[in-house]
């Protein structure tokens, strides 16, 4: 399903070369992005892939969008101006009619959102692990502390314990986060979803995204430089490291070639 068909960045030039976000795309010759069910924005650090996702999220007013300020004084709303100067087109429904509204479930999920969820769970686990000790330290006997935790009020804290016991690692927390938030019939912007995931889980997530795009009417625009995601996703890939944001095969990307050359160099060490 194609909910967002195309997106064109602002072409206006500003005099100051350091004004954000104009400076991110300065001296780039950029045609409109044309999206598929899965589109990847590839680029190394500083390429602007996260900025681009956030601009799209702001233009579409998606859940999870972040409104950035362009300078410390806020005297000129350059971010707002840039977003208003962008242009997008929506896709068509199954009957060929132009979509006039994005599905409610659509959202922008940032790597920070995932890390925050992990941190929140870890804090709960720390709280639950030290709870009994804290009550005893305040003057309760061990028996009194146990009775409190068995009470209605203490049951809320007991839930933290159960919750923490179900969460074994950051990677598993990330996978469960995606299971909760990725639902059928929606547009999702994902910023580096591979955060905290092992290579095997990165591939698993990419395979799930492929299935959701193919079978569950989802569209994904993903910022990543993970070779495991890039090699698994059935995606159109824009290389934001190039001047014209070329559409590129995953195996030709610099980051992927770096991994290939690294393991090729150590090939003999893998031989039995």
Q: CATH first level of the largest domain: which class?
A: Alpha Beta
Question: What's the number of domains?
Answer: 2
Oligomer: single chain
Whole-angstrom Rg: 23 Å
The total beta strand count reads 8
Low-confidence stretches: 124-129, 164-168
Structural class: alpha/beta
Q: Beta-sheet strand percentage?
A: 5-15%
* SSE run: EEEHHEEHHHHEHEHEH
CATH topology of the largest domain: Rossmann fold
Sheet with most strands: 5 strands, parallel
Overall average residue pLDDT: 82
How many alpha or pi helices? 9
**Strand line-up in the sheet with most strands:** 5-6-7-3-8
The CATH architecture of the largest domain comes to 3-Layer(aba) Sandwich
Gross geometry = globular
**Separation of the first and last Cα atoms:** 46 Å
Please give the share of residues in helix: 40-55%
Features:
ATP binding, Rossmann fold, single chain, 43% helix, 2 domains, three-stranded antiparallel sheet, 272 residues, 8 strands, globular, alpha/beta
Summarize the structure.
The protein is α/β, with parallel strands linked by helices.
Give an account of the 3D structure:
The chain is globular. The chain contains nine helices and eight strands. With 272 residues, the chain is of the alpha/beta class. It has helices at residues 49-60, 78-85, 111-137, 142-150, 152-166, 170-181, 199-215, 227-232, 254-265; strands at 4-8, 33-34, 38-42, 87-90, 107-109, 187-191, 219-223, 236-239. Mean pLDDT is 82; it is low at 124-129 and 164-168. The chain folds into two domains: 4-112 and 185-266, Rossmann fold; 113-170, no CATH class. The strands form two sheets. The protein has a five-stranded parallel sheet with strand order 5-6-7-3-8, sandwiched between helices. Helices cover 43% and strands 12% of the residues. α3 (111-137) packs across α5 and α3 (111-137) packs across α6 (170-181).
């Amino acid at each position: 399903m194609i909910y967002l068909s195309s997106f064109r960045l602002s072409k206006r030039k500003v005099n100051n070369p350091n004004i954000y976000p104009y400076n991110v795309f300065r001296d780039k010759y950029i045609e409109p992005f044309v999206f598929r069910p899965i589109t990847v924005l590839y680029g190394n650090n500083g390429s602007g892939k996260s900025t681009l996702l956030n601009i799209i999220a702001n233009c579409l007013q998606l859940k999870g969008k972040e409104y950035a300020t362009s300078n410390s004084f806020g005297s000129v709303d350059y971010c707002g101006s840039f977003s208003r100067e962008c242009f997008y087109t929506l896709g068509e429904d199954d009957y060929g009619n132009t979509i006039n509204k994005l599905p409610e479930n659509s959202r922008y999920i940032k790597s920070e959102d995932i890390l925050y969820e992990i941190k929140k769970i870890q804090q709960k686990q720390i709280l639950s692990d030290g709870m009994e000790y804290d009550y005893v330290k305040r003057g309760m006997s061990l028996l009194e502390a146990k009775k409190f935790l068995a009470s209605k009020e203490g049951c809320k804290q007991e839930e933290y314990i159960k919750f923490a016991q179900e969460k074994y690692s950051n990677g598993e927390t990330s996978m469960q986060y995606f299971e909760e938030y990725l639902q059928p019939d929606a547009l999702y912007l994902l910023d580096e979803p591979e955060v905290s995931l092992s290579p095997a889980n990165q591939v698993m997530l990419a395979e799930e995204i492929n299935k959701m795009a193919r079978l569950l009417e989802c569209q994904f625009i993903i910022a990543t430089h993970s070779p495991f995601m890039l090699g698994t996703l059935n995606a159109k890939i824009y290389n934001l490291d190039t001047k014209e944001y070329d559409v590129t095969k995953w195996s030709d990307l610099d980051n992927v070639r770096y991994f290939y050359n690294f393991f090729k160099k150590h090939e003999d060490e893998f031989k039995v």
